[in-house]
Write a structure and sequence with these properties.
single chain, mainly alpha, Serine Threonine Protein Phosphatase 5, Tetratricopeptide repeat, 8 helices, 2% strand, repeat, Ankyrin_rpt-contain_sf, transcription cis-regulatory region binding, Ankyrin_rpt, ANK repeat
Length: 195
Amino acid sequence: MLLKAGANVESADKCGWRPLHYAAFHGHETMVDWLLAANADVCASTLEWADNDTKPSRLYTGNKWKGHPIHLAAMAGNQNIMQKLLDHGADVFATTGIDTEKWYFPGHGPTALHIALDTGLFYGRIGKPLNKTRLWIAQMLVDRGADVNTVADHLQLDDVMCFEKFEGLWDKIRAGISEKGAKVSTVPIMHLQQP
């Protein structure tokens, strides 16, 4: 109703969050459809984190965080919204501005792929880390050319087991594990499976 009345789809709150950010984060798929139909900017960046209740560990309201709707869809684990954002030109290379040299939690970014593969503490997470939906999101991002460098550096052996039905994805992201990364970087999934 507000969109039909001419509401500004790019109106932002004090943290720089626009309606598409909130809709992507909270899983409001119908609202995402309406906003995309009204030409909402899929590459709009926030200024700060805005939600103290549902969040990755150590990310607080007011922290500098330049997330796009694609980051928030990855964080929420919403595969359908992620697909819609990608289909409307979301940037798989967009970063949240997190300095990974000083402060690194994959749940903060810097990319949507880092966020999709996050295994850390997340307050209010829907689903488990590295569940099928999150791995499908990671697959979508990799298929669109997302950079795999360092995205799996934090993964441990137990995490790798989650890739059992996603061997192709694992093969692609393990190629980007740095020397600082986990010791599982060279382990193919087939060697981890029970006989």
